[in-house]
Task: structure prediction
Amino acid sequence: MARRKNRPATQLDPRSQAILRAVIEEYVSTAQPVGSQALVDRFGLGVSSATVRNVMADLEDAGYLTHPHTSAGRVPTDAGYRLYVESIAPGISLAPVERLMIRHQFGQVEFASEQWFRLAAATIAGVTHAAGLATPAKPRSCRLRHIDLVANSTRTASLVVVLAEGSVKQELIPLDQPYEQGQLDDVERLLNVELAGRSARQVANRVEQLAADPRTPALGVRISGRIERIMRDVDAASIEDVFSDGLLNVMEAPEFSQSEKLRRVFAVLQNRDYLGSLVRRLAEADDVQVLIGAENEPAEMQDVSLVLATYGRSTGALGVVGVLGPTRMAYPQAIGTVRYVSGLMNELVEQLHR
Amino acid sequence: MARRKNRPATQLDPRSQAILRAVIEEYVSTAQPVGSQALVDRFGLGVSSATVRNVMADLEDAGYLTHPHTSAGRVPTDAGYRLYVESIAPGISLAPVERLMIRHQFGQVEFASEQWFRLAAATIAGVTHAAGLATPAKPRSCRLRHIDLVANSTRTASLVVVLAEGSVKQELIPLDQPYEQGQLDDVERLLNVELAGRSARQVANRVEQLAADPRTPALGVRISGRIERIMRDVDAASIEDVFSDGLLNVMEAPEFSQSEKLRRVFAVLQNRDYLGSLVRRLAEADDVQVLIGAENEPAEMQDVSLVLATYGRSTGALGVVGVLGPTRMAYPQAIGTVRYVSGLMNELVEQLHR
DNA sequence: AGTTAGCACTCCGCCCGTGAGAGTGCTAAC
DNA sequence: GTTAGCACTCTCACGGGCGGAGTGCTAACT
Result:
């Protein structure tokens, strides 16, 4: 008998690894616990089902597989997926056909930078049949490009702040007294001259000087303070938006047919804080990161996995693209797709920031 | 016996109306078919269950109620909800407590106009326990406020177009030859002088003249053409974004416990075209509009109702706020909330555009 | 005429036992 | 170390029986 109990954390022998792999791939495609007979039928492993049973029992002892109940087939555990993913991840690359298709799609929006991350999410969703996620690249520190100041009524004006990376913030400024548009134009000109091209920190310094200078009009002081705060907020926020596409794909997975589990997934996605913390953790990683099910703290994540990668790091900005799907997910394809798309996004963003 | 078959489309007598109303309210709160006994127990109608049964049979003949099966209680039909909604809608207004709470929340973001519609969706979701929807107000025709033109590399520049209502579009411009930032500044200045403050149509005219003028630099011609196209696209689009909040509330409803129906709902929400066509239809309506279940063409809408209202019309802009929930929905509250929030949004937008 | 008590009837949902099927773990032979 | 064989376990699907909820009808009452 092949069974060795209390196995230490040694390497798995190749046959065990092949069987683990076969179990996972079969389970991923059928969503049913897989039995020993089914494995030899479909994978022709060159051994009998009895041998496979012994090996599977070993894998269960080692924590890579489980049993829903005594007389059911095996199902991978999170640890099993983890081992699998780590063994395949380095060599994966997307099929040339799919690369070509993706590159073609991105070619269509090459000059519409606002569309890039939407397309990234959509593409990933389409290729992997799971949900695609993407955030716009957010620079570590923003620079002011331009402000506009326009009267709306006698009581309010609009302040539009255009930042160097193309993001834009808008605020209303309450006016204590009526101003002519001409007066607003003067303030606008002054502030553009004084503040444009500066980072949040530099703006803060300059704002202090402006406030101390008796020649600065009161409105200018107030508005420059607003600008400073807006830029500080932008720098402090870790992600602004997470775009997702193809959530319907996830809803189709049989493991989410009872809506309770599905609800948890959506709750995660609406939780900005959690995604923000993920991005922070990812920021140091170089390659695609795979987060499998309950390995991750929040209980909501129990039944889902994330495959994530950053892009734009070489330009000082940081964005994320990824896949969200059931733990029982086609990891090779997901990893390949995310790796390829993040590379593509890198190219695009570099071309923009250089 | 009270039964009169083949009832013409006459008014319902008051007692029938009261019973229809009671059935709906009971069904809305319990999600179970309601029986005659349950009605007299909980509503004390002053008649016996037998009488109620007779009336309910009449209401069923008239098409306002149905039977899931012979020995089950009654369930409202879409026509029943419709009659109910029409009988209550005119008089509904939100409870003062909730008004106060909502107004307070809006007070917090009074000067952050980008937040308004997000807050509207969130507030509606919170008060009604269904999903809240909101779109930003989109003017019938946009005006150019300002453009920025910035070099990214020797091969591309960024064009940022700020429109008068505060929305912003960004595009990359491929450069056939390297330009200095100084040259770009010249073009930027020229175009701002020539085009700022103009509508899409006016811009189009001016662009033609500029193109004909031999003194206009080639880059200026190209970029002005881009600006024209961008503005034309903005005017042509019917809605840009639909923000939704509280989708989790909808997922909790027992009618969506099988995920198939839920999928349909989400499919609707992702369908921009459908929502756009709704907005167009709504544009003429004055008050809150209620769309009940399968009254509406697409089969996906079968189990959901929409309560929608426009805002901002007096300023020439048009936005929508609303509720999406199961057909079995607390209509009075939904109508009251949507009516109140749309009024509030009106105030805010008017203050901005005047 | 409208209202009501009484009652037979219908149909769903639930419980329970049964049997088929799938897959395991163990033993003994190769 | 591998494999055939076999007993065992557990799930799932099916079907019958039963209680309960609610109806529709009839006949009596106001």
